[in-house]
Amino acid sequence: MKNEILPWLILFLPLFSAAAITLFTLRRKTVSSLISISAVVTGFVLTCLFLSANTFHPTVTETTVNWLTIGNLSIDFGLKLDALSLMMMLIVTGVGGAIHIYSYGYMHDDRSMARFFACMSLFTFSMLGIVLANNFVMMFIFWELVGVSSYLLIGFWFEKPSAGDAAKKAFITNRLGDFGFLLGILMVWSLLGSLNFGALNSIVTANSAALGCGATLAGLLIFCGAMGKSAQFPLHVWLPDAMEGPTPVSALIHAATMVAAGVYMLCRTFFLFEHSPEALHVIAYIGGFTALLAALMAIQQNDIKRIIAYSTLSQLGYMVMAVGLSGPTTAMFHLTTHAFFKALLFLSAGSVIIGMHHEQNIWQMGNLRKKMPLTFLTFFIGALALCGVPPFSGFYSKDAILALALEEKNYLLFGVALFVAALTTFYTFRLFFVVFFGQEKSKEASHAHESPLVITLPLVALAVLSVVGGFIGVTNFYGSQFGAKHASLTVMEQFTHPFHDVFPMACGIGAVVVGLFLAFKFYKNAATDPLPAKLGALARWMANRFYFDELYEATVIRFHDLLAQSSDWFDRWIIEGACIGLIRGGTDLSGRALRLVQTGNLQTYAFLFVFGVALLLYFVLVK
Amino acid sequence: MSILTYIAGWPLLAALALIVVPRNYRVIIRAIAVLATLISAVLAIKLFCQFVPGAAGYQFEQQIPWVQSLGISYHVGVDGINVGLILMGAIVAFAAALCSFEIQTREKEFYILLLVMTGGILGAFASLDLFFFYFLHELALVPTFIMIGVWGRGEKKNYATFQITLYLSVGALIALIGLIALHLQSGANTFDIPKLIEHVKTHPFSQGAQHLIFPLLLFGFGILVSLWPFHTWAPLGYGVAPSPTAMLHAGVLKKFGLYGLIRIALPMLPEAAQCWAQVLAWLCIGNILYVGWVAMRQKDLNLLIGNSSVAHMGFIFLGIASLNLIGISGAVIIMIAHGFLAALTFALSGYIYQQTGTLQMCELGGLCRKLPFIGTALLMAAMAGCGLPGFANFVGEATVFFGAWTVFPAVTVIALWGALVIGGVYMTRAIRNVLHGPLVEKWNSLTDAGHLWRKLPYALLLASLLVFGFWPRLLTEKINPDVEKIVAQIPPAFCVSSSGRESAQNPFAASQSRLAPAATK
């Protein structure tokens, strides 16, 4: 393999950048941001260099260093290089690079900008680690590290109580998922005796019953990890709150890359699931349910970032569903296009937020297309891609998922996916019409202005990718990893690929048209939301996210607090009291008892003395 | 003279020297203490680097006969198990001496006691003679009580001193009975640990003697390490202790009991260890889960840290109970990692207390803005405490889980819950309450750790955690060969394998031990 040092360099550059910023340049905003930006951009360039030398299928796919060996537990620090990881590296460094540059503009006036970039670099390092990991423990290590960088960035404005709470919530919810993930890893290790993905793959391929009856359980436990990180039901509650972080963070971590890590992990370990149809079923239905639930919630949100966040949840549900329908290629395809258009949507939203002086309520905006033409255009492209309007990238990946559901003869999930597609169009264009059309609904809206070039340039780059992402060969690369059914397609063939299977395509486009029509009808010139009046209680439930937070608060959290409270009480009064009480009381009591003997009365002493002598004499003489 | 004698000797020598320094020469007193611990730390690093992993026997040995009729000698040496502990102890002692600037009254006495404590515990870890092993630990333990009693803070000072003295004396006493019984029963007429172990290989203890002595050692040492349910002294004791004392005790001194179990109890009483492992595994749930819940409830930062430190002991016990190479190696790694971590957290809470005069979490808040350095360090420590990769604690905990999973799957599941979820909950709550949120008005005048000298102890401890977290092979390749020797002496599991993986055999193990005294007669 040529240039085998390059992947190591790409992985560790962001870590060096984070360390350098933390240790030396915390007081210098510009230097810090330049260090961080150059680390990730260099990573992108080096990835391209590596690809040009080795293509997507390097001859040597793993380079490892032994990290730890104890008996039969051997953990390597190794990089796995194949089409899957190399594509993801391109996304992480490419999209990440655009977002880093954007952040320079977005965070320019923040006094803690250096800290921001240190955390962003730490995140890039951790995310690249997940992508490149060649074994379960390595993946878990970076899994936790992205968790903590997400925690640090959500809580970036830690003085806001809501930001602190959101960070805490995200961390703990993720930890719940990781609990299952680590158990799954332990189980796989004890059943198969290895942690390395390649070795596990060959064990499972050679003997499909190697996991035995543990296959389903192990698969579902590992899926728990994805459930936490990719925010699938029932662990979805943290993602909307995570929008407390700065907008570039929402774009990079909570839309394009980190939340997709769960899907990536499922695809990376797909060989474990292949032999467990039950586990795949559960995964598919959880994905479908999450997609539906989140789309319903999105309809009644009023915060621009939260609407996009719920849409992210919903799209992640699509991806997870695709994995569950045995389509890792399709899932990764949607992950890739989603990374482009969702990053674009978030960054455009960020541009709107800057223009609106940090007002995020869409009912305070309106008619922004005149004030911010470029942002309007990029947002429009992102929205079209998200809804799946041909020929934008989202159309291709969503069509692939619909076709997959039909192919697997899962008509229920096909119906759900179709319905969600209509809902997606509806809430996206609700947002779009309210923000960019109609009347200015506040003073900020009439004084909005277009953002500077450093912000709009990344938008344009991402917009281009969102347009063409569907037919530039993404599926070819993933297909070559997972055994595609057909050979690589040329651009033209990809462009027309959905037309081979007209029914799902027609259904998909139909759903978009319905959604668009309804959004147009309700929100073309709306000054207030007409839906609550029409839907009544349902709208209230949607707006309150079906009361999941309240439910968890009342059950899980209350229960744990109760346990904590009773343990504390028991500790304080029973254990401490008993132990101390017994020792002290015992000593005290024997002291009191012995005191009675020391009366100071001569007669008593004499009596005891004689008694003792008599006793001794008895033992010596009589016995 | 062995380098080990110097490592333990310099602090003791400095303590003697301090006696003749007049008490108003405050700078000189402090300089002597810092210098002596610095020399120890540098020598310990040198020792760690020169140590040859996997070499036969002990390294850097030195033996001077003392009471030949009883077989007592001054005998020091290191193998893979204690070399890391000595390194950790010496670095923590140096950091503790640096952090002692918070002591403003009776400085001379404080530094003398601190140095005695340091020398004592480093000597105890280096000792290969049962007598010195125990004696040097007591030498280090007694100053703890005095320091908490005299320099402690808060209203509960007297009660805490009373409790910690009572508990630890009782624990040390029970362990002493066990050690004496061990000495007498072995029939080797020597206090030399390597000789005893060799002797036991050819003349193993009778079943009865093993089942009599092992619980004495387990619970005696267990009380010293705050094994559930004998743990209540720890949080309160650390809560009121001056931070250098808490650093040294929670970080270093507490590991003595665990070290004793691994060094003495396991190789000499392997069959009993096999049976009692079941009991120990279930007791450690008390540490991990129950004390974790207690920690969630604390309102005082120091009590929270103290409880979390007790909870961490559970992972070490679990590693020891698994009785296999992976588990015990993991336990030794956590012992070292937790030493650095406990010292770091108590040092940081001490700094905050010194600045604010309170550790009630509801009164603090938003401190990250005023104390960026201390805040970041506390954040990192909290993350290390809930097992974040990159810090040495993760390596140890993960290794323990891998080791314990094959033996006690149910316990491992609970331990995982404790490590990932409960640990995460109380650590993030603490961060949220202390560091995040709006800055309370009255803390506007706080000052961060300023110059390099003030930052050094925290940076040093953090760096140690990170080095071993990133490159755990530094530890594992030293630890493995010697743990392997211990594990080799433990017979193939008869209690554990016959009982399968259920706790149903618990009564069996317990009843056997109850029968044990009768069997010896």
Structure report:
Chain A is mainly alpha-helical and 623 residues long. Chain A contains 28 helices and two strands. The longest helix of chain A has 50 residues, at 548-597. Chain A starts with a helix and ends with a helix. Chain B has 521 residues and is mainly alpha-helical. Chain B has one domain (3-490). Chain B has helices spanning 3-19, 26-50, 80-99, 107-126, 130-151, 157-186, 193-202, 207-224, 233-240, 243-253, 255-268, 270-297, 301-322, 325-356, 367-370, 372-385, 392-405, 409-434, 452-470, 473-489, 495-499, 506-520; strands spanning 59-67, 72-78. Chain B has a two-stranded antiparallel ribbon with strand order 1-2. In chain B, helix 3 (80-99) runs parallel beside helix 14 (325-356) and helix 8 (207-224) packs parallel to helix 12. In chain B, 61% of the residues are buried. The model of chain B is unreliable at 495-521 (pLDDT under 50). The chains are: A mainly alpha (623), B mainly alpha (521). Chains A and B meet through strand 1, helix 5, helix 6 and helix 27 of A and helix 6, helix 12, helix 14, helix 16 and helix 17 of B.
Fill in the keyword field for this structure.
A: 623 residues, mainly alpha, 74% helix, globular, B: 521 residues
Secondary structure blueprint with pairings:
The complex is a heterodimer of chains A (623) and B (521).
Chain A (H helix, E strand, L loop, with lengths): L4 H19 L5 H26 L7 E9 L2 E8 L2 H24 L6 H20 L3 H19 L6 H32 L4 H10 L7 H16 L8 H4 L5 H10 L4 H8 L1 H4 L3 H23 L4 H21 L3 H28 L12 H4 L1 H15 L5 H15 L3 H26 L6 H4 L6 H16 L5 H9 L8 H5 L6 H22 L7 H5 L1 H7 L4 H50 L4 H21 L1
Antiparallel strand pairs in A: 1-2
Helix pairs in contact in A: 1-2, 1-4, 2-3, 2-4, 3-4, 3-10, 3-15, 3-21, 4-5, 5-6, 6-8, 8-11, 8-13, 10-15, 11-15, 13-14, 13-19, 13-26, 14-15, 14-18, 14-19, 15-17, 15-18, 15-21, 15-22, 17-19, 17-21, 18-19, 18-24, 19-24
Chain B lengths: L2 H17 L6 H25 L8 E9 L4 E7 L1 H20 L7 H20 L3 H22 L5 H30 L6 H10 L4 H18 L8 H8 L2 H11 L1 H14 L1 H28 L3 H22 L2 H32 L10 H4 L1 H14 L6 H14 L3 H26 L17 H19 L2 H17 L5 H5 L6 H15 L1
Antiparallel strand pairs in B: 1-2
